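input
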Amino acid sequence: MCNDIGAWECGFVTALSRRWPEPEAACRAWYRSGDGFALGTMQTVQVAGGLRAVDMVAQHGIRTAAGLRTAAGVQRGDRSAPSATAPCSSA
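output
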């Protein structure tokens, strides 16, 4: 699952990337290309044998301590996105 600013954050996608790096690489390339990258769009990525992963642009921005981070910048004080309880760790 991607967000509309092209960030590959924490949680499920981190575990997915550890097992199969292809979905993250494909999502980042898709974002850079701008080719149809918008909320609600999806692409499938071959990961192993007959197994595929689906990248879906399913989130608008990222909620940070400073506000909602979007492609247009940070909207200070915007509380429309859920806040994270703890930052991602790379451990």
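quick obs: The chain has a mean pLDDT of 78.
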